[in-house]
Amino acid sequence: MYRLYRTSPAPIRAAGDFFYRFIPERFLRSKQTRHHLAELEASQWWDETRLEAWRLEKLRDLLMHAGTHVPYYRELFGDLGFKPTEITGFSDLSTLPILTIHQLRELGERLLPDNIDRSTLYVSASSGSTGHYHEVLRDASFYAWEQAFLLRYLRWYGMRLRWRHAIFYRAIMEMPVESAEHPPYERFRNRLILSQFHTDEKSLDFSLGMLADFTPDFLTVFPTTLLVITRYCRSRGMAPPFRPRFIVCYSENLYEEHRIEMEAYWGCPIYNRYGHNEGCISAGSCTEQRLHLSAEMGHTEILRADGTPAAAGEQGRVIATGFFTHAMPLIRYDTRDMATLSTERCPCGRTLPVLESVDGRADDLVRTRDGKVVAALRSVFAHTEGIRLTQIVQEVPGEIIIRIVPDAHFTDSVQNIILENLHHDLGGDVLDVRFELVDDVERSPSGKIRLVLSRCEVGGPED
Predict the structure, then answer these.
(1) Tens digits of per-residue pLDDT, 49-87?
(2) Burial status of residue 297 (CB atoms within 10 A of its CB: 0-12, 13-18, 19 or more)
């Protein structure tokens, strides 16, 4: 139905927009999605024993399928003498090697099962934050689970079926326009889609006008884009063009100081979502602002550099196995992210694990002259006005370039504040710093802006 809508003439799309509001919910969401959502809304409260038993069953199903029908895993399991029917716990997974992004690209057909109708599959491209897209194949069963996880997060915030939703979408790359034939970009399903890529003044004015007209109940947006919009409005003394009930940030890190700044302007809670298009891991913040790992989607390992499990409260590399990736099984997939599990339970009462932090990619780390590896350098931009966007680039250890997209309030004193913050956080003269004023910072193909672009050697598992 959605595909038909997108390819129909403007008058038919307009009629679809009108009649959509009268379609019963059972026709808007599949029976599978509704069933999975009901299960997930129960499982978030289960005790650890019941949840782990459910998860182990899903893991066995995936491993048995992969070992029987997927050429790469069939050969691998045979070589290792690994028998899915004999696993007794998640620690048994450590017998298997980590699957890297390079292997994912090279293995190709050998990761696809021999018992599946490929005409029923769809392509899900990776987020491309490393500068290269790669494709994974998914089926209708995975899509139903994925939608159920997303809906569970939204229900945490009180979302109702027919609330208006505006999304700055990363797949929209053309310049925004408004016409009968090309609305921006659709209002089907009570949804307004705008471009994640265009943050120049003309495009921002266009998007703000659309939002003021559409008045969405909630907004989904990259945190960097929301920060640019927020500061753009504030610098012009503008009141918020609409009053959302809540805002969801996704795809990039949402930093605490930015969340506080943006909540003060928009007058609503701002929540965070973390995940990958590969479909192995997903997390969302609850109303207590704790980032809950959706343990039902897969098994997540957080490993030290030597491959041993990191303790709660200790940062490590995120390795994930997706329970519902049967169309292209990903077992012990290296997400290249760094994260830390919390040592505390959440006051909301959900038994799902809590991530204390997601600190970005392992190749987003800055290496100092004295050999230290530093993450989360966002604090060096505290108390700086006049910056629209910024990015740290490192080619060699001990040297960084800080690129700044200035706004009308930028002064050279901002650079001195950043240097003072760096010296305070890192101590001593451990980095040579050069500033560049630019029109825009480097983005991934999906529109993501990484705070750090490091091209130094990366430790840990192969990237």
Answers:
(1) 999 999 999 999 999 999 999 999 999 999 999 999 999
(2) buried
| DSSP, res 98 | P
Over the chain, what is the mean pLDDT? 86
CB-CB neighbours of 344 under 10 Å: 11
Percentage of the chain with pLDDT > 90? 54
The conformation of residue 239, written as its DSSP 8-state character, comes to P
Pairing relationship of beta strands 452-454 and 387-394 according to DSSP bridges: parallel
**Which pLDDT belongs to residue 352?**
98
- Rounded Cα distance, 160 and 122, in Å: 28
Tell me the domains of the chain and their CATH numbers: 42-148+275-361 (3.40.50.12780), 365-454 (3.30.300.30)
pLDDT band, residue 321 (cuts 50/70/90)? very high
According to the model, what pLDDT value does residue 367 have? 83
CA 226, CA 389: separation in Å to the nearest integer? 11
The pLDDT tens digits of the residues spanning 154-178 come to 999 999 988 999 998 865 545 555 5
Name which of 156, 350, 366, 416 is nearest 271 in CA terms: 156
pLDDT of residue 12: 77
Query: With contact defined as beta carbons under 8 Å apart, do 293 and 275 qualify?
Result: no
The answer to whether 331 touches 98, Cβ cutoff 8 Å, is no
Strands 399-406 and 432-437: parallel
**What pLDDT does 127 receive?**
47
Cβ–Cβ under 8 Å, residues 112 and 137: yes
Q: How far apart are CA 217 and CA 284, in angstroms?
A: 19
8 Å CB contact between 276 and 325: no
Contacts of 67 (CB under 8 A, 6+ apart): 73, 74, 77, 82, 83, 84
Beta strands in 29-175 (DSSP E): 122-125, 135-138, 165-169
CA-CA distance, 458 to 111, in Å (whole number)?
Answer: 26
Total residue length of the chain? 463
